[in-house]
């Protein structure tokens, strides 16, 4: 089965730099990433990321620029 299949459930994951991605549920999440609790189809997860990840700059850059 391909991971692009609509049968796959994905989880939204985020790293310490507050960068988002999706990861197939059941696969070990890579070091430095953790799940956000949001799961669904690929499209649902990407839609959620589009709503919450509005500033693509890494957290460390935002802090260096004096923003939170």
TrEMBL record:
Pfam family, one: MbtH
Chain ranges of the MbtH-like domain: 1-51
Protein name listed in UniProt: MbtH-like domain-containing protein
Gene3D superfamilies noted in UniProt: Structural Genomics, Unknown Function 30-nov-00 1gh9 Mol_id
InterPro entries: MbtH-like_dom, MbtH-like_sf, MLP_fam
Species the sequence originates in: Sphaerisporangium flaviroseum
Superkingdom of the organism of origin: Bacteria
């Amino acid at each position: 089965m391909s991971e692009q299949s609509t049968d796959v459930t994905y989880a939204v994951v985020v790293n310490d730099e507050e960068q988002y991605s999706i990861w197939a549920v059941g696969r070990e999440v890579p070091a430095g990433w953790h799940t956000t609790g949001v799961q669904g189809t690929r499209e649902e997860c990407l839609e959620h990321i589009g709503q919450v990840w509005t500033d693509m700059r890494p957290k460390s850059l935002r802090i260096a620029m004096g923003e939170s």
